[in-house]
Amino acid sequence: MSENKPENAGTTGSPQPASPAPSSAPAEPAASLPPSHEDAIRSAAKDTSPTAEEATARSSTDDPLSASSVTPEDPRTARLRDAAEARSAAAESTARQEAKVHEREVRRAGTYAGGATMVKPEPLAKPTVAAGEPRAAGGSAADLATEDEIATEAAAAPAARAPGSPPPGFGAAPDFSATNPPPPNALPPSPPRYLKQSDSAWSVFGRIIAARARQLFDRAGQRITQRTLRIGVSARIFHPEPGAKGLRGKTLQYLEESVAHWVMSRDVLVFMIPTVGHQGMLHPSNIRLRDYAKHLDGLLLQGGADVSPQTYAESAASHEWPGDRVRDMYELELLHEFVESGKPVLGVCRGCQLINVAFGGTLYQDIATEVPTANAHVNENYDQHRHGVHFPDGSTLLNMFPGRHDAIVNSIHHQAVKTLGRDLNIEAVSASDGIIEAVRYRRAPFVMGVQWHPEFHRAGGPELLDCTPLLDTFLRVARETRF
């Protein structure tokens, strides 16, 4: 049979204080505290409540005075004190966390504002709650005041927007009832004419006619600027042979194929211009050469027979060089019509000589006999004969062929410029004997003659001068002067 002895059986004479009976008064429910404060309450209660060992040591002391000094504490008062301390610790922890969140948001907003200097916010004041102070549901009065202040500051501070996120209100339905007037500077200084009170039916009709006219002019300008160029070429003339029958007894007008193909290489239309107004025509008409100058964009005078000495008031030095007086009269009239119309003119070989004669110049009827020191400018090889030319300073050919003062060209002529016509400039000379090889009329946009045949030069050829820049300049002026 075992004995049941109390642990303090050896201490006699010390009366054991009776344990206080559990109070029948209901304790405050723990649910009255916010759920976020439960952990803080538990930790605070654990730290502040006396342990069982301390209570046992206090009650089991040998000192009767100490035993008599232990006064049992009211359970309700202890619970109120513990709850107040727990609420104070929880409020302090919450305020510290919210201060950290507020500081982080302010720092982020300062970073988005362009790196402005930030001031570290001061921590929120610690709320203090007196023991036994009644607490409203959901938190103490200090807790509610702190939460209201934080909510007010959060509402007043601009919300920081993360990079790439849409602006506030993006995607929301439009408010059609709101009025958004335009800014003052967007309004015209005065109302348009069609809003004026004095506007009449005639003024409206006039504006309609003006708008229609502008539209027609715009369309006409587009047709002119986009229209393909039309270049006229003077005709070579084959006169009937005396006593000949068949085709040789008729007057023929033609152009050389190489000339037409050279001009058409730049995608322009070529028109051969026939003679008009000749005496004895079987079918007379009212068409004149000025009509061609009006409707065509430029003129090319091609090579052919010699210019008649009668055209520049001289007599023929030999019966072998009578020239073509009929063609001279036809081409001189054609040249002057194009010059008066402001259209460009390009003369080739005979065309160069005709330009000089048209402005009062004269010609060498035969270079070999009149200039014995000159080199041969023509032989039986025809277009295979060539020599060097030089572009003097001030020549426009230097602009067409930049960096070149000398070139190799073909030579198929026995006549040449002798006395330079008025208002003409020398553009090129023969490198070996100084015979004039190109002239330009300086009182017109483009009137130039070259003594060689550029249509016989292959484009991009390694030896002979590529005369494509000459053609391009002629056609460019034709586009500029066709309005």
Plain-language structure description:
GO terms for molecular function: gamma-glutamyl-gamma-aminobutyrate hydrolase activity. The chain has two domains: about 130 residues, no CATH class; about 260 residues, 3-Layer(aba) Sandwich (Rossmann fold). About 35% of the residues lie in helices and about 10% in strands. It has 13 helices and 13 strands. The chain has a nine-stranded mixed sheet with strand order 4-1-5-6-13-12-11-8-9, sandwiched between helices. Strands 2-3 form a two-stranded antiparallel ribbon. A two-stranded antiparallel ribbon has the order 7-10. Helix 1 crosses helix 4 and helix 4 packs parallel to helix 5. The radius of gyration is 58 Å and the shape is elongated. The N terminus is likely disordered.
Using the 3D structure, state the CATH architecture of the largest domain. Answer: 3-Layer(aba) Sandwich
Roughly how much helix do the residues carry, as a percent range? 25-40%
Structural class: alpha/beta
Fourth-level CATH superfamily of the largest domain: Class I glutamine amidotransferase (GATase) domain
Q: Segments where pLDDT lies below 50 for 5+ residues?
A: 1-37, 44-50, 59-70, 112-139
What is the number of domains? 2
Radius of gyration: 58 Å
- Beta-sheet strand percentage? 5-15%
Count of helix runs: 13
CATH topology heading of the largest domain:
Rossmann fold
Q: Can you count the beta strands?
A: 13
Give the termini distance in whole angstroms: 141 Å
Give the topology string: H per helix, E per strand: HHHHHHEEEHEHEHEHEHEHEEEEEH
Q: How much is the average pLDDT?
A: 77
Q: What is the highest CATH level, the class of the largest domain?
A: Alpha Beta
User: What does the main sheet amount to?
Assistant: 9 strands, mixed
Envelope shape: elongated
With strands numbered from the N-terminus, the spatial order across the biggest sheet is 4-1-5-6-13-12-11-8-9
